[in-house]
Give the backbone structure.
Amino acid sequence: MIYVLLGIAAAFCAYIQWGDEIPVPYVDKDINKKEAKYILNVNKQEEKEKYKKAVLKRRTTSGYMTVEEYEQLSAPKDRMQTEIDIPKIPTPADMVYVPQPSYKIVRYNNPPGSPEITLTNTFYERRQQNAQGIVSPDFTKLVYPAIYYYPNTGSTACDIFVINLEEAKSNMDKILTASTIHRLSEPILSTNKTNDNYYTFRTITPVDFSPDGTKILLKEKIGNTKDGIWKTTPVVYDFSVKNSYSLVELRDAIVYYWKENQDINLEDKRWDIYPLGFASSNPNWVVVNAIAYTGEKPVNLGTWAVTAKGERPRLLTLDNTKAVEIGMNGYKLVKAGVVSPSITEAEEKQLKQIDKNKAKQDKKQKKEDLKALKKSYKAKIKEMDEEFRESQKDYDLRRKIQGSTSGNEAIEKYKQIKAEQQFKEEQKLEKQRQKELRQLEREREKQQSQ
């Protein structure tokens, strides 16, 4: 009994002497350990849930997603980078063979001045149509007209758009995969879109490119579906300066010539011009043919030329039997027939085999992804456990030092012990490294001896 009383008295004296520096009771310290263990378990449970969600996402497709996943999927995408497949007519389930069309590349402006816009039967129902496009001589761009129909007045309008073709493809595939999704956002030319006049139509038709592809000749037609064409105006767009030139001076020159030489006032007649293309002898000149409708048989008003900027209009010939050499520089795609059934069947077998191999590869990749997920999850849990053990060892060390020393002496002792531990760890790693090097050296010597 007396020893118990002596122990209590000694503890009381120590409290009087050291005050707040007396070691914290074990029970209080154990609470910190329990809290750290609880936090570890919570973090491990979160990692486990993340792992299960990742596995479930790869195994099944559900309609649920996180806000982060939704924002990632709904982020705007660059439409210019969208991949377009070569179009193919699908085969219905009740048919064995569907003929697949074959294509070929031909000259667009052949014969000169012949390109026209052909409206389909569905144009007035859909109220929009993309007409035949023309490809530049270097196969870098495709230009096409988009025509719009306004049913409230029965009138039409038109825009000219440009599609930059992909480089790393054959010329045929460049045209087949050209899509309006890749077109430049703003048209290079547009007609007047006011639709207050009933049954008026305004269209712009590409005629041809210049040989170097830097300019394109187009014709703007204005007229009335009840009355015919009123006026055709040639227009040249220069891609190098991104500017268009309306060649209206040419019409004025034709009117002036026939008034001065034949005393014929074309303003009182029905006449028009037909742009033919760029002159072969001088690609900077645009050649047109003028026609007057004064009776049953059209009257030739001559073949004329004007610069690409609408300057120096001149008469080339009044004899329509004398042909003027016109360049045919642009290209277009036309159907050349159908692919042989044997080729189509062979392609279908190849596609089926490709799909089968792809499904097999996807299955293999999914299995590898699941293994990688599991490995990553286990590595993460192992890392968390190791960090927890290290933190607890460090905690016990601090607690032990605080129980035997105080103040700066405790800090210095802690640093000394940590330095010794780090030194021992480095020595251990160095020994391991030397062991691996010796093993590699023995293997190298063994290979050399063989």
About this structure: The CA atoms of residues 79 and 181 lie 6 Å apart.
